[in-house]
Amino acid sequence: MTWAERISPAVRAIPPSGIRRFFDIVAETKGVVSLGVGEPDFVTPWHIRESCVYGLQQGYTAYTSNYGLLELREEIAKNCAASYGVNYDPRKEVLVTVGVSEALDLAMRAILSPGDEVLVPEPCYVSYKACVSLAGGVPVTVPTRMADCFRVTVSQLEELVTPRTKALLIGYPNNPTGAIMSKAELEGIAAFALKHDLIVISDEIYASLTYDGAHTCFASLPGMRDRTILLNGFSKAYAMTGWRIGYALSNPDFIGAMTKIHQYTMLCAPITAQVAAVEALRHGQCNMLRMVEEYNRRRRLMVDGFKTIGLDCFEPKGAFYIFPSIKQTGLSSLAFAEELLKAEKVALVPGDAFGESGEGFVRCSYASSTANLSEALTRIGRFVKKYI
Amino acid sequence: MRELLELLEKDHTLTVAQLAVMLDKPQDEIAALIKQFEADKTIVKYQTIVNWEKAGADRVTAIIEVRITPQREVGFDAIAERIYRFPEVRSLYLMSGAYDLLVIVEAKTLKEAAQFVSTKLSTIEGVISTTTHFMLKQYKEAGVILEDEEEDRRLVVSP
Question: Which major enzyme category is it (chain A) (predicted)?
Fold first, then answer.
């Protein structure tokens, strides 16, 4: 038996991340203007970094409770109550994790039994389906379309739900499409979850980056608080990607189960990052709003840019991505991304990295300077002209 | 319009077309606003921040605390005007505290700056005393860190 054959079948079965694959191609090219970055281009605001340094000076270097620093959990609960009117007990219903990625993995492992199905609207964040599979579940893809503004509809869900369906995993505002869901649409989904007795895992990491309207927190909908595992974190809103701090909010049973896994794997999130996260929640609102304002301006620039280029493009209402269709060029997403990289040295991410439903699209991040975005748009325009 | 002014303060090379798209307003509205701001001196000047040390130019900046006797009816303003009219004076502020005016003077040499203080500034009627400090190094100017070491450390492609 080879070494490769000794790898667990579950791990062998999941494909490597499409983003990773494309990164390897990009890494060999020099002088690239990148729209491929899924993280803020702002550095973590100085007051947050400074609080971490101060924390270290104060001797914050030990383990914290498995649940996370109580101080941080209290701030998280307070913030959620103030923003969405949903109250959680910081002692039993809040878990601080190593990024939302860990929280997602914990949620899946805590609730799934082998063969349980999870409905996953697509295109979606690269980890969603893999986390379901790794936890022994079966991801059931719910394809969304540009014509529906990449929103999932109840009728689609009704078609795919089976007696084995245990949960629904949604991520709005969405990475990679920038789609959001209105309150009314989410209410429809909530009724569907109630009807079929489903758990809803709602990844709201981009909640603060919602433009032209307020974000609806799924747990705030009637009857959804205890049925929902709400995931959020500090990476996007506070430009803290490398700190790896996320959190999960739910009823004490789900949070308790997730904490059990967490304590045997991570033990706790790094204390230095938790100290910084407390500062972010206490004093970071102004900086956050300034960043959101800036993303919003760039978003308009990108929508206008793609309109001028002539590619079909849905107007994103959240996150910091735009997801134009490249079907008119006749190229596949990967071919488009590779050819563009070769011809014009612009990096973006092929849509199929986010599932089959992403084929025919590319993800462009506007977490970059205005000058970079303008340059990238000029180059993409020049490239696309050869095909349409 | 605060947003427009903020954008221009940060980068005045943005075109009217770009500004219009970013602010979701018609181009002619943006152009008219800019014209109006320029006319009423809300926008005073478009300026480039230069790191002169890097450019290899020798310059001396003196920061001078000035105590003055306020004058009837005009208070500090008349003396302030006499001072700020000198081309050597880069900035002038009325202060609270131990002194009245803070004058920032730029000269080619130390001698030139000292001469300005002794022959022009101190001799103005109403100036009681001056305390001159010479600037040794400039780290930040108008909100911009001059030797910013923070670069984009992100991977070129990430999820």
Answer: transferase
The CATH architecture that domain A4-44+286-385 belongs to is Alpha-Beta Complex (3.90)
Residue ranges per domain, chain A? 4-44+286-385, 46-284
Answer yes or no: is pLDDT of A245 > 90: yes
Question: Does the distance separating the beta carbons of B3 and A32 come in below 8 Å?
Answer: no
Note the pTM of the prediction, 2 decimals: 0.92
One-letter amino acid at A368 equals S
Determine the Cα–Cα distance for residues A175 and A351; give it in Å rounded to an integer.
Answer: 11
Quote the ipTM score. Answer: 0.84
> How far A27 CA sits from the closest chain B CA (Å)?
7
**Residues of chain A neighbouring B24 (CB-CB closer than 8 A):** 300
pLDDT-based confidence at A131, cuts 50/70/90?
A: very high
CA distance A367 to chain B (A): 11
What are the strands of the beta sheet with B60-68, ordered from one edge? B89-94, B101-107, B60-68, B127-134
Contact flag A41-B157 (C-beta cutoff 8 Å): no
Quote the tokens at residue A258.
């997730």
> Per-residue pLDDT averaged across A131-144, rounded?
98
Res B150 pLDDT > 90: no
Domain A46-284 falls under CATH 3.40.640.10: yes
Average pLDDT taken over every residue of chain A: 96
Chain A residue with CA closest to B155: the answer is: A37
Q: Indicate yes or no: CB of A297 within 8 angstroms of CB of B23.
A: yes
Which chain A residues touch B159 with a CB distance below 8 Å?
17, 19, 38, 125-127, 175
Tell me which residue has tokens 């001396």: B60
Contact partners, residue A157, CB within 8 Å, separation at least 6: A119, A142, A168, A189, A192
CA distance A118 to A166: 6
- What is the CATH code for B60-137? 3.30.70.920
Backbone angles phi, psi at B89, to 5 degrees: -80, 115
